[in-house]
Design brief:
alpha/beta; Rossmann fold; seven-stranded mixed sheet; 4 helices; globular
Length: 155
């Protein structure tokens, strides 16, 4: 199986949202997208831009589904499901979410922490890895924005 990767750097939340908007133009449903990165890496910030790019939600209306697990955003081209599996630890817990029921021809699943589950690693179409790579420091205090490295791999 051949895959293609691109790497992009952003220097602020606004740039990450803008990259998400542009990326939405390259994505077509149905898709399973794994969003990988540490806490605070910018996964939800990127989803804000993707949701805007699909005209499914305004950036300020997109929030992390950490406690609700799934947020749905409906647009004219696609239904986006933003899913956070951080608090899901077992395959059985994953199955109770019914993610298979969300996969449809007009849907894109944007899954945070999906790399924890072998089935999602196997079945995904796109993996987006976000990493903080630079923090401007003064003494022990962080000042300024953090640079983010965003790698998009399409299989």
């Amino acid at each position: 199986m051949t895959s293609q990767s691109i790497t992009h750097f952003t220097h602020s939340a606004e740039e990450t949202i803008a990259f998400g908007r542009r990326l939405a133009g390259e994505l077509s449903p149905p898709l399973i997208v794994l969003l990988c990165g540490d806490l605070g890496a910018g996964k939800t910030t990127l989803v804000k831009g993707i949701a805007e790019g699909f005209e499914a939600a305004r950036a300020e209306d997109v929030t992390s589904p950490t406690f609700t697990l799934v947020h749905e955003y409906r647009g004219p081209r696609a239904i986006l499901y933003h899913i956070d599996l951080y608090r899901i630890d077992t395959q059985r817990d994953l199955e109770t979410l019914g993610l298979d029921d969300l996969v449809a021809p007009n849907c894109i699943l944007l899954i945070e922490w999906g790399e924890k589950f072998p089935r999602l690693q196997r079945d995904h179409n796109v993996q987006i890895t976000l990493e903080r790579v630079g923090e401007e420091q003064v003494g022990e205090e962080q000042v300024g924005e953090t640079e983010r490295r965003i790698e998009v791999t399409i299989r």
